[in-house]
Amino acid sequence: MQLSASATAQPNTRYEVNAAGPIDLTLPTNPAVGDFVSLRGVSNTAWRIVPGQITGAAGTSPVPTAVITTNLSGNVAPATAASWTPRMPQRQWHWVASDEDGSVLVASDIPGNLYVSLDGGVTWNVGNSPPDQVWISVAIRRSTNASGVRQLTLLAVAFQGGMYRSTDGGVTWTQFTTTDPAVNLNNQDWESVTMNPTGQIIAGAILNGPIYHSANGGANWAAATLEGSTTPLVRGWRGVASSADGSVMVAVGEEGDGQIFVSTTAGRTWTPRAVSIGGTTLFNGWYRVAVSGDGNTIAIAGRFNSGMYISRDRGLTWSQAATPVGDYTAISMSPDGQVIGATITNGVNNPTTGSVQLSRDGGATFAPVAMPGTQTNWRAIAMSADANKFIVAAGTFTQLAGQLYTSLGNRTSFGSGSIGGGQNDSVEVRYEGNARYSVRTSAGGPFTIR
Question: What is the CATH number that goes with domain 2-75+412-449?
Answer without folding.
Answer: 2.60.120
